[in-house]
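Input structure tokens:
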């Protein structure tokens, strides 16, 4: 019987899922392995009726550059009881499987880590290598390397946001965009920067002050007021959906928002239109302060997950797949495959990345003091500063300081980069 490799995809889709799974298939097929695709994510490993199919060259060649996932995905998360009672070891034994390839984000990586430790403890000779995916860009890869899917999602998100921005300019309105991103603001910031959006709001901005709905509303109006001062009566505001993870329960209840939760305990943000909520809150503030502005909500999320991957992600995913074979041939297991900007492959061991208490892989968030973030907020974004107070008062706003961007965030009035450098010099002394 041939040695075999089995592939599963966990979590939600991202552009490049097929590029990884089918490139893994092509790579191992070329080396004489049998390649098995497992449908249903991790649920198949904990079921006696796993749905599998052999992945041939013709299947792989047809799907490797397509969006979506040929292998059906799921968010199934095994319990400790599942590991002890339901783990389908026969699936591995009966098919002579030597390697389990998992493709997914932080939750999938955390479960892959559990499986790796479980197999090691039981003495099962099965290797496990994980491929990091997520449009949120929130896995802790070195040197700020992106997760696959992020660049494709950002590209399509920016395309949608550019169209929306043109609508705002054409109609003289403001459009409020909510961008997907559970714990990290990378996608929202990437879309905001790529479209020269005058205000992008992400959770990481609130590094000096507590986050709340009122501050998010005031940051939005800060951009609107600044543009009015500049004689510009249109624009877009991008807000990361991850803001909702930070709002207090009483705030959410007062706003009339009620979430259901997925198998991982995360609020199912996709069931509620965050853009509509933000827009409703903005309109209430417009009425309160007597500001005559028209705004409309736009949601960017599920429409960027299953698009065809851009060339960057097809190439990147192909390199990840070849990296899986390289690491496997070197005897590596219990790791994520990492490919640097030069195409060099190395393992990132899940045990080294995990939180020692929870065993989960902690998410990477936007470094708000990085040049990428600070340059956007210093040079592209529009917002009220003390120099604008008189002009804002002339618009009929009695308290312009309430909409001062840096006061709301309690950021230094000087450049945050300069402040960061000064702080580092003080610490060095």
């Amino acid at each position: 019987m041939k040695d075999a490799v089995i592939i599963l995809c966990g979590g939600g889709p991202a552009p490049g899922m097929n590029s990884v799974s089918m490139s893994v298939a092509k790579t191992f097929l070329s080396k004489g392995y049998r390649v098995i695709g497992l449908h249903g994510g991790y649920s198949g490993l904990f079921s006696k009726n796993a749905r599998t199919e052999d992945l041939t060259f013709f299947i792989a060649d047809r799907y490797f550059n397509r969006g979506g996932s040929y292998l059906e995905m799921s968010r199934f998360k095994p319990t400790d009881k599942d590991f002890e009672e339901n783990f389908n070891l026969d699936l591995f034994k009966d098919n002579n499987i030597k390697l389990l390839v998992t493709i997914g984000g932080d939750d999938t990586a955390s479960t892959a880590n559990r499986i790796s430790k479980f197999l090691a403890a039981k003495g099962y000779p099965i290797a496990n290598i994980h491929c990091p995916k997520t449009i949120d860009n929130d896995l802790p890869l070195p040197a700020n390397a992106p997760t696959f899917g992020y660049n494709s999602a950002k590209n399509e998100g920016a395309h949608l946001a550019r169209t929306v921005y043109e609508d705002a300019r054409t109609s003289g309105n403001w459009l409020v965009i909510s961008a997907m991103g559970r714990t990290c603001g990378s996608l929202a910031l990437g879309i905001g920067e790529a479209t020269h959006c005058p205000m992008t709001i992400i959770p990481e901005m609130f590094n000096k002050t507590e986050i709340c709905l009122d501050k998010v509303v005031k940051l939005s109006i800060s951009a609107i007021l600044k543009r009015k001062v500049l004689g510009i009566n249109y624009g877009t505001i991008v807000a990361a959906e991850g803001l909702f993870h930070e709002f207090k329960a009483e705030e959410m209840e007062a706003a009339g928002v009620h979430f259901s939760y997925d198998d991982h305990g995360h609020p199912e943000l996709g069931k509620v239109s965050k853009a509509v909520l933000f827009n409703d809150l903005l309109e209430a503030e417009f009425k309160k302060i007597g500001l005559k502005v028209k705004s409309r909500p736009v949601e960017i999320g599920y429409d960027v997950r299953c698009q065809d991957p851009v060339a960057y992600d097809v190439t990147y995913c192909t390199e990840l797949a070849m990296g899986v074979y390289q690491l496997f041939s070197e005897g590596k297991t219990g790791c994520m495959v990492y490919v640097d900007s030069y195409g060099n492959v190395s393992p990132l061991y899940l045990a080294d990345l995990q939180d020692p208490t929870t065993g989960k892989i902690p998410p990477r968030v936007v470094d708000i003091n990085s040049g990428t973030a600070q340059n956007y907020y210093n040079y592209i974004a529009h917002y009220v500063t003390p120099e604008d107070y008189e002009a804002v008062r002339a618009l009929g706003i009695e308290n312009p300081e309430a909409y001062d961007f840096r006061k709301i965030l309690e950021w230094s009035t000087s450049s945050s980069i300069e402040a960061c450098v000064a702080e580092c010099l003080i610490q060095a002394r």
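The chain is about 40% helix and 15% strand. The radius of gyration is 24 Å.
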